[in-house]
Design a protein that fits this description.
With about 250 residues, the chain is an all-alpha fold. The protein has twelve helices and no strands. Helix 4 packs parallel to helix 9 and helix 6 packs across helix 8. It is globular and about 45 Å long. The termini are far apart.
């Protein structure tokens, strides 16, 4: 009996939602320690949904600008999304939102806090977090591993910069959505399984890895210029708050 074309989509979206349930497991674990989930997302603060969507919006724009020429070039890993992928997009959005939130809360939240206590330095703590984050996505080697390391280090920078996870969550969400739509041959989530398959033998071609790092640096730099330096991510359309003037 042939497999229904719906089955692969349901399986992969179910897997994303299952990862998202890791938020509940982390909440339970933190409860045993006398803490709550916000202690790793935004310690001492309230959840900032606006920062999440602004981060996703800016990164989505920056990443799209980088990918725009690729679908029209020969022999590139990018392709325009299929109609099927676009039809499944409403289900992909909440699934990816939960999955990326869980990964950020665990990696850039829980693990990063532990490594910072151990190393007393946020930059040093970001290194083992990047390694663990990449291993959680499979050992692919080469330029694909650079993308995992790069995304993790950038998310760690955002967490340090803002003192909270919402910006990193938004960036991670936008990255996964756009990569799934454009970077899987237009097939969407079923194509993601093929991309995630580990190499038979992980190799580390230095030129390809350096090129991947340079490509990934483009949206990160654009994001910093458009979202961070302008103050948009942190303060919205108001930009940087006006300096307070002393009155006598």
């Amino acid at each position: 009996m042939p497999e229904s074309p719906i089955t692969p989509w349901l399986l992969e979206i179910s897997q994303l939602l299952l990862i998202g349930l890791g938020l509940l497991a982390l909440h339970w674990t933190l409860g045993l320690q006398g803490r709550d989930l916000m202690s790793v997302i935004a310690p001492g603060k309230r959840l900032d949904g606006g920062m999440w969507w602004r981060a996703a919006l800016v990164y989505g724009l920056c990443f799209s600008l980088m990918m725009l020429p690729f679908p029209f070039m020969d022999e590139t890993p990018w392709a325009l999304p299929s109609v099927t992928a676009l039809l499944w997009l409403p289900a992909m959005l909440p699934a990816f939102a939960l999955q990326t939130a869980a990964e950020e809360a665990f990696c850039r939240g829980y693990l990063a806090q532990g490594f910072q206590v151990l190393f007393r330095n946020a930059a040093v703590a970001a290194l083992p977090v990047a390694v663990i984050f990449s291993l959680l996505h499979g050992w692919n080697g080469g330029e694909r591993q650079v993308f995992y390391w790069g995304l993790s280090l950038f998310a760690s920078y955002l967490t340090w910069r803002f003192g909270r996870l919402e910006a990193a969550m938004g960036v991670h969400f936008a990255h996964n959505i756009l990569f799934t739509l454009f970077g899987t041959g237009g097939k969407g989530l079923p194509g993601m399984s093929e991309k995630m398959q580990p190499d038979e033998m992980a190799t580390f071609p230095i030129p390809d890895m350096l090129l991947a790092a340079l490509i990934l640096a483009v949206p990160f730099l654009l994001y910093w210029l458009l979202g961070i330096r302008t103050g948009f991510i942190e303060h919205g359309w108001r930009g940087k708050p006006a300096p307070q003037t002393e009155t006598t």
